[in-house]
Amino acid sequence: MSDKLKVGILGGTGMVGQRFISLLDGHPWFEVTEIAASPRSAGMTYEEAVGNRWKLEKPMPEGVKKIVVRNVNEVEEVASHVDFVFSAVDMSKDEIKKIEEEYAKTETPVVSNNSAHRWTPDVPMVVPEINPQHMKVIEFQKKRLGTTRGFIAVKPNCSIQSYAPVLTAWKEFEPYEVIASTYQAISGAGKTFKDWPEMQANIIPFISGEEEKSEKEPLRLWGEIKDGVIVPADNIKITSQCIRVPILYGHTATVFVKFKKKPTKEQLIQKINEFSGIPQELKLPSAPKQYIQYLEEDNRPQVQLDVNYENGMGISVGRLREDSVYDYKFVGLSHNTIRGAAGGAVLCAELLKAQGYITKK
Fold first, then answer.
1. How far apart are CA 181 and CA 214, in angstroms?
2. Does the N-terminal or the C-terminal CB of the chain have fewer CB atoms within 10 Å?
């Protein structure tokens, strides 16, 4: 019998669910044993349920093809076969909140890619290199839910991954005003060019909800736990525009920053290259060895050259220079479905295991 933790994927047939399954293939700690999806997929094998809708370049792992998909709404049944679940369900926000809490109340930890619980005050929203200490709020959440091991933890929006880590690396220089415009890949909407042909050679200057997430979610990452809830930081203001561009994978950000303590360019680059956190200290399986890289070439980072840096778990930064209005400006790039979605959630689960929050049932 495997000593790996048994994992369920809620919403396993969608693009992010598929990315979870791909990333967990051969994982040293976790093994996918259950896949749950909508009632129309229940009873089919995973291979049958996905059919020709497998969206990734890497083929479907052999180990999941014959898993019989369960109805995600049969919470007790799914939960009884796993140690914890990843959530990537495609439902309304209220439905997601409800079903994730139902799973948590079966004493099954939920690590969610969804946005529904990102602002629930006692649910940690974590980038493991930035705010691992926020996992401590889980103890307050468990009291509210009446659980001993069940809880919900979430990762933030994919759009902030290409700049929030950089600003975190620079926190000693006290950034206080930021403009962050993001140029977001179509896979962030769960689409490929086959699904969304009108995105070919097109730009759409609106992505519902993204600008609010891009402006507010970093503040929660930088917040503190007070009286059992996470209180967002209030010492920095971010304004954002979010644009959909004809790229399959990779969110690019152009960022302008004002600092209270003005650093040199060399200091900023040094802080980027040296930045690391608990995942690197613990050598968690999905952790990039170097979290952020700085590229000196004027034409970097580029999606085609850099989006898969550190297996898609690293951040690439370039074009750092002084600005005539703000202090500095730069360009950042991150992989939106790996670091920004499923991979970021897998790293959260690895951290939770290392911290003792996720164990065998």
1. 9
2. N
